[in-house]
Design goal:
It is a single chain. With about 210 residues, the protein is mostly helical. It contains eleven helices and four strands, in the order H-H-H-H-H-E-E-H-H-H-H-E-E-H-H. Helix 3 crosses helix 4. The chain is globular.
Length: about 210
């Protein structure tokens, strides 16, 4: 298992921004300017649908373009930036490749460092203490909880994201997608598959 602890601080800029967002949410709700349910729906949209679509396009490009794939593993920040996905929380990106023998999973054990430009808002569970601890101590159990049980001979590598290095997982391309366009392939890529806690959707299940 690959596991790295290179945090230089216990509370990252992500945490500070999260506290400010929560305070703003409470203020807006208290003043009646926004309904909590509507705000929850908006946040869910950016967590699970709009935000991760950028990363899905990166993955689909890597699946179909060998030169881009090579570039992604050599310099993920530059490769991703060439598609227009860059900025705050997207610096120092590293791409990890899932194969039939190796499965990578990302966690941030001390805070909640997360590549916003390609994955959108971090999900609540990613920031939770149970995930952050179990991802290290029992990664296979976590994967099983997410419905991504792996064969016993697959090595699980856990990578600790930091303010200096953020990761995106390149999942294995689903079988039966030969000849598919980037747009079609992007519909199979889930947020969780780019964190490593899930797998892409199989062909025929893009909704």
């Amino acid at each position: 298992m690959a596991h790295e602890h290179d945090h230089t601080h216990e509370h990252s800029e992500d945490d500070e921004l999260g506290f400010r967002v929560q305070a703003l949410e409470r203020l807006l709700a208290e003043k009646g300017l926004v309904k909590p349910d509507a705000l929850d729906e908006l946040i869910d949209t950016y967590e699970t649908r709009v935000g991760p679509r950028n990363g899905a396009r990166v993955v689909a490009r890597a699946w179909t373009d060998p030169q881009f794939r090579k570039w992604l593993f050599e310099d993920a920040t530059a490769a991703i930036g060439s598609m227009g996905f860059e900025g705050r929380q997207g610096e120092h990106m590293v791409a990890l490749e899932n194969t039939e023998r190796v499965h990578n999973m990302v966690v941030c054990t001390l805070c909640s460092c997360y590549p916003w430009p390609v994955l959108g808002l971090p999900p609540v569970w990613y920031k939770s203490a149970p995930y952050r601890s179990r991802a290290v101590s029992d990664p296979r159990g976590v994967l099983a909880d997410f419905g991504a049980a792996l064969a016993a001979d697959v090595e699980v590598r856990v990578w600790d994201s930091t303010a200096e290095t953020r990761f995106i997982v390149l999942p294995m391309r689903p079988a039966g997608t030969e000849g598919w366009s980037e747009d079609q392939l992007a519909e199979l890529v889930t947020r969780d598959s780019m964190i490593g806690t899930g797998l892409p959707k199989p062909p025929g299940k893009t909704s």
